[in-house]
Amino acid sequence: MSIEVRNVTKLFGNFAALKDVSLTVPSGELVALLGPSGSGKTTLLRIIAGLETPDEGSVHFDGEDATARNPRDRRVGFVFQHYALFRQMTVFDNVAFGLRVKPRVERPSPAEIAERVHELLALVQLERLSGRHPSQLSGGQRQRVALARALAVQPKILLLDEPFGALDAKVRQELRRWLRRLHDEIGITSVFVTHDQDEALEVADRVAVLHEGRVEQEGSPEEVYNHPASPFVFHFLGNVNLFHGRIEGGTMHVGEFSLELPKGTQADAASAVAYARPHLLDIDHTPLPGRPHFRATIRHINAAGPIVRVELATGSGGIVHAELPQERYRVLGLQRGAEVYVSVKDMKVFTGPHGASGAGI
Predict the structure, then answer these.
(1) In whole angstroms, what is the distance from residue 338 CA to residue 358 CA?
(2) Where are the alpha helices (DSSP H) in the chain?
(3) pTM of the entire structure?
(4) Which end of the chain is more exposed for a tag (fewer CB within 10 A), N or C?
(5) Are strands 269-276 and 241-248 parallel, antiparallel or unpaired?
(6) Runs of H (alpha helix) within 51-168
């Protein structure tokens, strides 16, 4: 089932939680609503579920206006961050609950309910724990029970609000990979809220980045990460270096280096900021020909793991961060305090006083 949000605005008193938001979720896709606290992502999820009513705009399922439908009639499964399991019930009874409270004419027989519950517990790999209570489960197991309960009523849409937010980092990583595999298996249209960039980029088919009640950018994980549409998206999706300068005649001048810009893409500007991810900076003992570069001094090296993270100080006192593969690091033989040349493989330029905070030169 496809979801289409059309020009939705939601006010809480004088505060606009959502401002003219439009979003399309194609049938069968897993879409992440990503953004900081207060960006409107949970409000948007609750409006799709029917738990909140928009002040303006509409929500459509498979092209039909569902704005006035109550939550029960929307065929939506909702998974909360803190599980919301019934503590006095067993795992089996928690999963069966939604089926048992259906109207009598829609309610499956006890045998059909049992069959459905056992199928779901097998799907979420908890069949052996059906007789336990939530207090006897780990956080990851409780969240899988909550997911099985949401799926029990055979929803057309699955909505998840920070589903792994209450779990530690290791369990989060394991569960998000498991959720991706589960989604590929069942193919249900799904929307999940998260503030974890890695989670959204790893799990989702598409990502909608929200900021101050608006959709700042929407696209595939690769698109939003490699081609951010705004300084906010650049900042929010991972580490970034900022280079402040000016544009004259199609060239951006930053400190001791200049960067030629694609023709027709940037007009002259007295104030401009170039953004470059740490992995798009390279380090060498001599300048690399054909690339803009600047001199810097190595302040700190973190060589733990497959990626080596290097912190450098520029001649003007700014701080930049570079990331190198272990092989490149070993070839260079970098040492703290060494003077090196930093070259820029690629960067994106925004004119105006963007990116006032963050590392840069």
Answers:
(1) 24
(2) 41-49, 91-100, 110-123, 139-152, 169-186, 197-203, 221-226, 231-236, 326-332
(3) 0.85
(4) N
(5) antiparallel
(6) 91-100, 110-123, 139-152
Interatomic CA distance for residues 324 and 109, integer angstroms: 60
The tally of CA atoms less than 13 A away on the side-chain side of residue 25 is 29
Q: Which two tokens stand for residue 282?
A: 């390279």
Q: Which of 119-123, 136-140, 270-274 has the lowest mean pLDDT?
A: 270-274
Chain-centroid distance, C-alpha 112: 38
Least confidently predicted of 6-10, 73-77, 141-145, 289-293: 289-293
How far, in Å, CA of 108 to CA of 152, rounded?
A: 11
φ and ψ of 111, to 5 deg? -65, -40
Phi, psi of 358 (to 5 degrees): 115, 170
CA-based radius of gyration for the chain: 25
Count the neighbouring beta carbons within 10 Å of the beta carbon of residue 63. 7
Rounded to whole angstroms, the Cα distance separating 301 from 40 reads: 38
DSSP secondary structure code for residue 86 in this structure: -
Beta-bridge partner residues of 16: 11
Strand partners, 241: 276
Beta carbons of 223 and 260 less than 8 angstroms apart: no
62 Cβ neighbours under 8 A, 6+ residues apart? 1, 2, 27
Asked if residue 312 lies in contact with residue 322, where contact means CB atoms within 8 angstroms, the answer is: yes
Q: Any bridge partners for residue 159, and if so which?
A: 78, 191
Q: CA-CA distances (angstroms) from residue 342 to 65, 89, 293?
A: 55, 60, 5
> Which of the residue ranges 137-146, 269-278, 287-296 would you say has the lowest mean pLDDT?
287-296
95 band by pLDDT with thresholds 50, 70 and 90: very high
Q: pLDDT per residue over 74-91, tens digit each? A: 999 998 877 789 999 999
Beta strands in the chain (DSSP E): 3-12, 15-25, 30-34, 56-61, 64-65, 76-79, 157-161, 189-194, 206-211, 214-219, 241-248, 251-254, 257-260, 269-276, 281-284, 293-302, 307-314, 319-325, 339-344, 348-351
Query: Do residues 221 and 180 touch, judged by C-beta distance below 8 A?
Result: no
The first and second tokens of residue 275, run together, are 């953004």
